[in-house]
């Protein structure tokens, strides 16, 4: 029960830790290793970037407190913008209902202080700020992809059917209903993560709501901007094994060409067992567990 509760809290952005000073690491190349699953060998970041620009959507699955991971996603996003200026940044860290606030800030109409408060930025916003500022400078879109916590909390209490009771004015912030939560590999993976906790079904429905919201946000953007690309940043549970948000996006847009990155710190960083990780994504990035976390 304690293990299940701790895992549950890890899934909920409400329980983000307090903000700490920036943890930029000198010579970050020494603190990460990239594995190309198709080629079955380690590669450089430059080689990954060559392949990334060919895809319409690049998923970066992160550990939210991984300092090296944050530096890498910033470098990937910068490269995508350089090669394809119409690259939108889509983020789990902001909700769909604060999209007007995001756009007001990017347009220079409101202060950063107001933006952080009214966009309900996560407490570790400092980790994502460089990407937001780059988007602002480049005058490119940032997509608040996730559903607001008032909706996810309602589902955690009452299940997905409660969303049908919300007024029509709320529906524009939600993905299309109903949201399918059929049994399958993702459900089995979720139950394993929750240690088979008997009360986890409504939490699984909440997980599916998050996935559907992020996927629908990407789909809706690409439908309006057919020549654009998207760099999607989310916790890696949402996209590992090409499940969750990744799979949901393909259900909305089957022809979308996607690339999947799973980035995390690992105790076997010095001598990785790549075979153990190769099912997770197209590219596996292991980061040095000795580097101080961002919080």
Describe the structure.
- By secondary structure, this protein is of the alpha/beta class.
- It has one domain (40-254): Rossmann fold (3-Layer(aba) Sandwich), CATH 3.40.50.
- It is 40% helix and 16% strand.
- It has twelve helices and eight strands.
- Strands 2-1-8-7-3-6-4-5 form an eight-stranded mixed β-sheet, with helices on both faces.
- A hairpin with a 4-residue loop joins β1 (32-36) and β2.
- α3 (67-83) runs parallel beside α6 (129-138) and α10 packs across α11 (245-252).
- The longest helix has 24 residues, at 201-224.
- The chain is globular, with a radius of gyration of 18 Å.
- The two termini are 26 Å apart.
- Residues 1-23 have low confidence and may be disordered.
């Amino acid at each position: 029960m304690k293990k299940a509760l701790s895992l549950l809290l890890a899934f909920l952005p409400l329980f983000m830790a307090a903000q700490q000073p920036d943890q930029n690491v000198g010579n970050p190349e020494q603190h990460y290793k990239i594995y190309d699953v198709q080629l079955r060998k380690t590669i450089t970041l430059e080689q990954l970037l060559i392949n990334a620009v060919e895809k319409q959507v690049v998923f970066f699955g992160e550990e939210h407190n991984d300092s090296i991971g944050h530096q890498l996603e910033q470098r990937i996003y910068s490269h995508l913008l350089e090669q394809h200026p119409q690259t939108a940044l889509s983020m789990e860290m902001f909700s769909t209902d604060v999209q007007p606030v995001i756009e007001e800030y990017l347009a220079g109409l409101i202060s950063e202080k107001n933006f952080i408060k009214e966009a309900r930025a996560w407490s570790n916003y400092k980790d994502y700020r460089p990407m937001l500022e780059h988007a602002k400078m480049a005058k490119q879109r940032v997509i608040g992809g996730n559903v607001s916590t008032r909706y996810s909390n309602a589902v955690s209490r009452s299940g997905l059917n409660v969303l049908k009771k919300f007024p029509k004015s709320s529906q524009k912030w939600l993905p299309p209903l109903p949201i399918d939560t059929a049994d399958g590999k993702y459900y089995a993976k979720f139950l394993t993560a929750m240690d088979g906790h008997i009360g986890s079904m409504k939490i699984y429905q909440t997980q599916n709501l998050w996935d559907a919201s992020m996927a629908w946000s990407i789909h809706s953007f690409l439908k309006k901007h057919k020549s654009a690309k998207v760099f999607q940043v989310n916790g890696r549970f949402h996209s590992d094994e090409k499940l969750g948000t990744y799979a949901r996006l393909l259900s909305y847009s089957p022809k979308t060409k996607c690339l999947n990155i799973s980035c995390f710190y690992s105790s076997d960083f010095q001598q990785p067992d790549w075979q153990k990780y190769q099912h997770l994504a197209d590219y596996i990035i292991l980061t040095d567990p000795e580097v101080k976390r961002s919080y």
